[in-house]
Design a protein that fits this description.
This protein has about 550 residues and is of the alpha/beta class. The chain has three domains: about 1-180, Alpha-D-Glucose-1,6-Bisphosphate, Chain A, domain 3, CATH 3.40.120; about 185-405, Alpha-D-Glucose-1,6-Bisphosphate, Chain A, domain 3, CATH 3.40.120; about 410-540, Alpha-D-phosphohexomutase, C-terminal domain (TATA-Binding Protein), CATH 3.30.310.50. The protein is built from 18 helices and 27 strands.
């Protein structure tokens, strides 16, 4: 065993963002950089002597090297067993599933999710706790603090572990089990959904496409959709995970998943299309010439949950992140369920699920999930939709139109301004904050403003408070305008502008969201001076 002296914190003074540590690969490749984070994590998480650690990642460049360092450090620090996905692969929801199933102490997940991969792109690491969920803020803060006072790290001198074959290996006294990355997750999916009904649907000529975007869900989708459920060969596109994600940007939205979008809006469009992101925790749902917003998707899943065997007894409650539209709130209200509004990031849902307060959770950023694991889960959402389609035997578009007739339509859009100068981005939010006192009671976009604030959340389970989670302009009719800075980028700043308005009248449900929200979009630009302060005249991505 070796002890190595290290002094600088990998966070470089920046507190942890939405999900763990994300930096350029070249930064992670610096001597002792990754090791510092891993040792700080081990120093922060309590007594794990004799326990199990789960390790795996989305397969991006530097995944394998990182896993070898982590395993040698886990052995030196006193873990007695490590479970690793074959070839170093574990999707984020599969890692969560395995931590729970095998009662591991926790897990290290290697991913920068939707960020691009390759030697000049991004890498990331985060710690998940024994419940299978992302470390809550008190743990991420403790990890951060330990990176500041760390003096050394422990690592064993040993040969690299063979990650390519399943089996059990000894690593300086720690047992490393290289496990099938898909099997446990696939078994969990089979226990929730009506696979026979989905198999019948797919055998009946129902055509679908799933775009894995050359990222981690390829092996999972191929095994489950084409293997177990009998979808036609070729249903899964871009199914082979690549270290650089094929040069693409595995963010399942209308801009970056354009190959799938072209198919779904083409002459031969199949009935159903879906895509997932780099680490497999997000989903985009499409019908024939139809896009389902993630906020609406959560609402539809909640309204139809009892059609799925795993939720046949009903759901306990629903939670959504603050910028997510209130469509799910309307379903919860009609079902007599509680609906919770949390800050952005999955870690806030964990306490609510552990306490049995909610079953389904979702974010507007294409993240949906349930208490089957403690992460959002892309393929789970796809199977949920397939289960609903198999039972209802209607098109995706018809299901949405009926949903809006019943609950009204929450027109919704997110505008992202990526790679903006950080000072300019901060100034945009400040510009709105400066008007917090003068805006309420005035009209904007033909609506009366009721309140302006910085969103703050008090966790109903442990009482912890998270402040400054988004600048809000709220209107009397329920419309909202929200400004937030991304916490997951690695260069410059990304401004996210979220817009929502509610329409009860079903004769007005057929509009394009950008048209329906046009006055709100213009008003948001005026009130924030976004164009003047950033020099941008249009968003990078519109969802
Ligand atoms: C984004 C999304 C957020 C999501 C987070 C992590 O964060 O907006 O909803 O939870 O990514 O998702 P931000 O701070 O950039 O807005 V993932 O798929 O990277 O684990
Ligand atoms: Co992700």
């Amino acid at each position: 065993m070796r002890t190595q002296t290290v002094l600088t914190s990998p966070f470089e003074g920046q507190r942890p963002g939405t999900s763990g540590l994300r930096k350029k690969v070249r930064v992670f490749q610096q001597a002792h950089y990754l090791a510092n984070f891993v040792q700080a994590t081990f120093n922060a998480i309590g007594d794990f002597q004799g326990q199990t650690l789960v390790v795996g990642g989305d397969g991006r460049f530097y995944n394998r090297e990182a896993i070898q360092i982590i395993l040698k450090m886990a052995a030196a620090n006193g873990f007695t067993r490590a479970l690793v996905g074959q070839c170093g692969i574990l999707s984020t929801p599969a890692a969560s599933c395995i931590i729970r199933k095998y009662k591991a102490y926790g897990g290290l997940i290697l991913s920068a999710s939707h960020n691009a991969a390759g030697p000049d792109e991004d890498f990331g690491i985060k710690y998940n706790i024994g419940s299978g969920g992302p470390a809550p803020e008190n743990v991420t803060e403790a990890i951060y603090d330990r990176t500041l006072d760390i003096e050394r790290y422990l690592i064993v001198d040993a040969d690299d572990v063979d990650l390519d074959h399943t089996g059990s290996f000894d690593l300086a006294g720690m047992q490393v089990e290289v496990i099938d990355a898909v099997a446990d997750y696939a078994a969990l999916m089979q226990s929730i959904f009506d696979f026979d009904a989905i198999r019948d649907l797919l055998a009946s000529g129902f055509a679908m496409k799933f775009d894995a975007m050359h990222a981690v869900t390829g092996p999972y989708a191929t095994a489950i959709l084409e293997g177990t459920l009998g979808a036609a060969a070729g249903t899964v596109m871009n199914g082979e995970p690549k270290e650089d994600f094929g040069g693409g940007h595995p963010d399942p939205n209308l801009t970056y998943a354009h190959e799938l979008v072209e198919i779904m809006y083409g002459d031969q469009a199949p009935a159903f299309g879906a895509a997932s992101d780099g680490d497999g925790d997000r989903n985009m749902i499409l019908g024939d010439h139809f896009f389902v917003t993630p906020s609406d998707s959560l609402a539809v899943l909640a309204a139809n949950a009892t059609l799925v065997p795993g939720y046949a007894g009903g759901i306990a409650g629903v939670a959504r992140s603050m910028p997510t539209s209130a469509a799910a709130d309307r379903v919860a209200e009609s079902l007599g369920l509680d609906c919770y509004e949390t800050p952005t990031g999955w870690k806030f849902f964990g306490n609510l699920m552990d306490a049995g307060k909610v079953t389904l959770c979702g974010e507007e950023s294409f993240g949906t999930g349930s208490d089957h694991v403690r992460e959002k889960d892309g393929l789970w959402a796809v199977l949920f939709w397939l289960n609903i389609l198999a039972v209802r035997k209607e098109s995706v578009a018809d299901i949405l139109v009926e949903h809006w007739q019943q609950f009204g339509r929450n027109y919704y859009s997110r505008h992202d301004y990526e790679g903006v100068d950080s000072a300019a981005a901060t100034a945009v939010l400040q510009q709105v904050r400066d008007q917090f006192d003068s805006l309420p009671g005035t009209q904007l976009a033909g609506r009366m403003i009721s309140t302006c604030d910085d969103f703050s959340y008090t966790d109903p389970v442990d009482g912890s408070v998270s402040s400054n989670q988004g600048v809000r302009v709220l209107f009397e009719d329920g419309s909202r305008m929200i400004f937030r800075l991304s916490g997951t980028g690695t260069s410059g700043a990304t401004i996210r502008l979220y817009l929502e308005s509610y329409e009860a009248d079903s004769s007005k449900h057929g509009l394009d969201a950008q048209d329906a929200l046009a006055d709100m979009i213009a008003a948001a630009g005026a009130v924030s001076q976004l164009r003047e302060l950033t020099g941008r005249d249009k968003p990078t991505v519109i969802t």
